Amino acid sequence: MEVLRVEQLSKHFGGVKAVDNVSFTVRRGERLAIIGPNGAGKTTLFNLINGQLPATTGRIYFFNQDVTLLPTHRRAHLGQARAFQIISLFRKLTVLENALLTLHGTKLSRFKMFRPVQDFKDVFDDALQTLKLLDLLDKRYERVENLAHGEQRRLEIGLGLAMQPRLLLLDEPSAGLTKEEGVEIIGIIRNLGSDITVLMVDHDMQMVFEVAERIIVLHYGQIIADGTPGEIQADHRTREIYMGIEE
Question: Of 6, 135, 152, 165, which one's alpha carbon is 20 to 30 angstroms from that of 239?
Answer without folding.
Answer: 6
